[in-house]
Write a structure and sequence with these properties.
Immunoglobulin-like, 4-stranded mixed beta sheet, 4-stranded antiparallel beta sheet
């Protein structure tokens, strides 16, 4: 969705009187694209996975050669799924306020759901804030 402020030339937020919304529809041929899915976890800054908890509302972005292909947010259990991706090597970038961002490489395969991306974010140290 593209959001445009009215008036478009506003210099300050207080000058904006309303917004104009433009929905964007993305159409792909699923027989020529692939899907990635998985979960995002809070590793709580501890070794091991026993105390890891899911992170809801983390931003998951897929990039190909540095260009954004698609973005989504994780669900209540940290789950994500992004379809309609071009085949080949992609970068998954995961970000959430209060956590260090993580990037992982994956390979998208045509007509396949590459599941099992279990991505763990580390909390930002207070000294880093």
């Amino acid at each position: 969705m593209i959001v445009k402020p009215i008036p478009a030339a506003a210099n300050q937020a207080g000058e904006i009187t309303s917004f104009q919304f433009h929905p964007v529809l993305r159409v792909v041929n699923v027989s020529e694209t692939g899907t990635i899915s998985g979960h995002v976890w809070n590793n709580a800054g501890t070794p091991g996975e026993v105390d890891d908890t899911p992170i809801a509302s983390a931003t998951v972005t897929v990039l190909a050669s540095g260009v954004v292909q698609s973005t989504t947010a994780t669900g209540a259990q940290g789950e994500f799924r992004i379809s309609g991706l071009k085949p080949g090597t992609q970068t998954i970038r995961v970000e959430m306020i209060g956590f260090n961002p993580v990037e992982v490489q994956t390979t998208v395969v045509v007509a396949t759901d590459i599941d099992g991306h279990e991505i763990r974010l580390s909390p930002v140290e207070e000294s880093e804030l």
